[in-house]
Amino acid sequence: MxxxxxxxxxxxxxxxxxxxxxxxxxxxxxxxxxxxxPQGLDGRxxxxxxxxxxxxxxxxRSRFHVPWLRKYLKSHVSIIIENKPGAGGVSGTNLxxxxxxxxxELNMLSTGGSTNIxxxxxxxxxxxxxxxxxxxAGFPVGSVWYVARDTGIKTVADLRHPPxxxxxxxxxxxxxxxxxxxxFDLLGIExxxxxxxxxxxxxxxxxxxxxxxxxxxxxxxxxQSRLAERPDVVPLYTDGILDQHGxxxxxxSWPDLPSVKDVYVTLHGKLPSGPEWEAYKIALGTRGxxxxxVWLHADAPKEAVDELTQAFRDMSHDPEYQxxxxxxxxxxxxxxxxxxxxPLVKQTFDIDPGVREWLYGWLEQKYNIPRPRK
Length: 374
Hints:
three-stranded antiparallel beta sheet, 2 domains, D-Maltodextrin-Binding Protein, domain 2, 14 helices, seven-stranded mixed beta sheet, globular, alpha+beta
């Protein structure tokens, strides 16, 4: 058995050696751990699974939080961060979920937008259910939509009849671009879309800089650092963010920019409604409010859930933490607590069958993406 941590059913001796060489074991308190409390955290090791490669966005943000947990957890614990990449986060998330009946109840999981899309699209490889987990912390990410100045577009009203054809460089219709493509259709914007920029935002930004596209979206942090001061860029609107009631409101990082909801009102003179609007809110949730989530198993001990939740809540009020987090996310506050996150999770993943069928049909008709097998 690996020293200092409890081996779960899926870890063998070879896994222990690999973890000892390549894993990350982060002690949150020095000295020898006390005897483990069967219900609480004291003396235990938390295995924090990250189902993506080391160095990726979800991994970096997970590791970023270890010293803050050291500061705010009351118990003496250690954390193992274990990367289990594969299938856009699906493989590791499946592993976490499958071990829920024979596990160290203090296992923790981080997920990202691609994992969310996989569940919504009911990809055949998915064996997990977010509705059967406890969300304790969520890290929203906002995005800014902008055009090249030489398009002649100055405000969102100009999107009715753009002086030039708009070109958008995308990654995948059923992935990163889903909410944006739904917004194009919802708003009635004519945009020529080219897929295949598989490196995500970095490759689509490069396409914009090369002139391959003239209409693009980047996260707030990237826009602030790379685009905000450029004279050849015109910011138009944001995705908006979901409030605690599941409604789309203005992005607090960009209070002077309209949200997609505001743009719809400007272009159509009424509030958006119907299955396409509901589908947009679902897609927005997968990469906005729920972009990165931290989860526990559904039957984790209440004492452990409460202490971890309180640690995230306490750090969220620390000005130093807020400043450090803003450098990663663009200034969005952490969302803490199952009581706040569960309604957002339910809205995003417990989808009305009519809306789900509309979304599958739209993707199939518009982008030739087959419906998931039932």
